[in-house]
Amino acid sequence: MSIIRFNTMDLGTYETDVVVSSINQSSTANNKPMIKITLSDGEDSITALIFDTTKKDLAASGVEEGITAVVSLEVTDYKGNRSYKVVNINPVKLPEDELKQLIKMPPEDPAKLVSDILMLIKQSSGRTYDLSTNEVPSDDFSLTALSVRLITSRLKDFTKSSAAKTMHHNIYGGLAYHIYRMVKAAYAVCEVYPLLNRELLVCGTALHDIGKLVEMKTSDTGIAAYTDMGNLFGHPLLGIEMIDHEVWRQNQAAGGKSYSAEQVAMLKHMIASHHGQPEWGAIRVPVTPEAMILHELDMIDSRMYMFEETFSTMDPGTSSDPVFGIAGEGKAVIYKNSFSNYN
Q1: What is the pLDDT of residues 310-331, one digit of tens each?
Q2: CA-CA distance, 88 to 134, in Å (whole number)?
Q3: CB-CB contact of 150 with 243 (8 Å)
C-alpha cells in the first residue's frame, strides 16, 4: 500500500496508509454513535467521521491512538468544504521506509538534538567535561551532573517524546526540539544579562518539561497520550518528584549529602513556576531571574512553533484562521508578510 497525501485527494474514495492521531467518541443528531478520528499522512492531518461505531468497537479491532492503519476514505463536498468519512479502517504494520514517511519529525534528527542538549548542559558551567560521552564523574554533584543523569536515565523516552498532545511541538522528538531551541536561546540571553547564572538557567531549561516523560506516553509514531499519573498531577509536580528521587538516590550512594540543597531548591522552583501563572498551571509564580527567563523562553518557543506550523500552509500576504494559544488563552489570526524569512 502506498501513501496518498490528503492534499492531493479530489472527491472520491481512496485507500491509503495513515497514523491514527486521536479518536473521540461522539453522536449524531439522532443520538447514534459516531467517531471523530484524526488521521495524519506525515505532512497534514484531517478529521474524518465513522458512523455507527464506538471507541470500544475500534479498540476491539485494534484501532487505537498512535497506531498505523490502512484506511478507505470517502472524500465529499459539504457546503463548499471537504468532508471525510471512513468506510473501513484496519491496523497495519508498515515497513520502516514507509513508516518514516508517516511520522512527522523535527527538521533535525532527535538523537542529534539530545546529544547537543547534553553537550550544552556540560558546557554551561564553564567547567571541563568529557564531551565525547554522556557520562559524568561519579563524585560530581553539580546541577550539570544532576541534569545529565536525569536525561540519560530516560534517554530513549526523552529522544522520541512529543512535547504535548496538541498545541506545540506535538511530534516525534518534539520535546527534544523544544528544549534544544530553548537551551540555545538561554545561552544567548545570558550574554545580554550577566546577572543570570548560566548553569542554573540552562539546567532548569533542559529539565523544565522532564516530567512529561511520566505525564505522557508517546507512541513510536509520535502520538502522545496522557497517563493516569499525568491526569492526576501534571508534569511540573512529576518533574520535581524525578529530581527528588535522583537526589535521594545519590544521597544513598554517597552515604550522606550529595547535591547542594539550595541549588536543587532553585532548580525545583524553576520547574514549579515555568508556566508563569497559577491559572496557566504554575505551582508558584517565578521569583528568581532564572525562573522568570525560563517562563518567557518557554512562551517564545511554543508560540514561534505555532507561527511556523501555521505559516507552512499559508501564502505570503494572507491572514490565517483564528489560532488558539497564539495570544494568551484566546484565539487570534496571524499575518504572513511577503518580505520576511518565512519560507
Answers
A1: 898 889 999 998 988 887 767 8
A2: 47
A3: yes
DSSP states along 184-248: HHHHHHHHH-TTS-HHHHHHHHHHTTTTHHHHEEE-TTS-EEE-HHHHHH-HHHHHHHHHHHHHH
109-115-118-124 Cα dihedral, nearest 10 degrees: -80
Q: Tell the residue number behind the cell numbers 493516569, with chain if given.
A: 228
Q: Which of 58-62, 145-149, 162-166 has the lowest mean pLDDT?
A: 162-166
Q: Do residues 239 and 218 lie in contact, with contact meaning Cβ atoms separated by under 8 Å?
A: no
Grid cell of 223 as nine digits: 502520538
Q: What is the DSSP string of 306-329?
A: HHHHHHTT--TTEEPSPEEEEETT
Residue of 65, 241, 69, 232 lying closest to 165 (CA atoms): 65
Beta bridge partners of 23: 37
What is the number of residues in the chain?
A: 343
Model pLDDT, residue 300? 96
Cell numbers at 144, concatenated:
550539570
pLDDT band at 44 (very low <50, low <70, confident <90, very high): confident
Residue 255, SS3?
Answer: coil
Angle at 190 between CA 188 and CA 193, to 5 degrees: 120
Query: Whole-angstrom Cα distance, residue 254 to residue 330?
Result: 50
* Amino acid residing at 152: T
Q: Chain-centre distance of CA 340, in angstroms?
A: 27
Does pLDDT of 161 surpass 80? yes
Tell me the C-alpha to C-alpha distance, in Å, between residue 141 and each of 96, 131, 136, 258: 41, 18, 9, 6
Q: How far apart are CA 293 and CA 310, in angstroms?
A: 26
pLDDT of residue 343: 64
| Cut 0.85: pTM above it | yes
Give the pLDDT band (50/70/90) at residue 98: confident
**DSSP helix/strand/coil, 86:** strand
Nearest CA to 177 out of 161, 188, 165, 193 is that of 161
Reading the block at residue 147, the C-alpha cell is: 541534569
Measure Cα distances from 187 to 167, 181, 198, 203 in Å: 25, 10, 7, 11
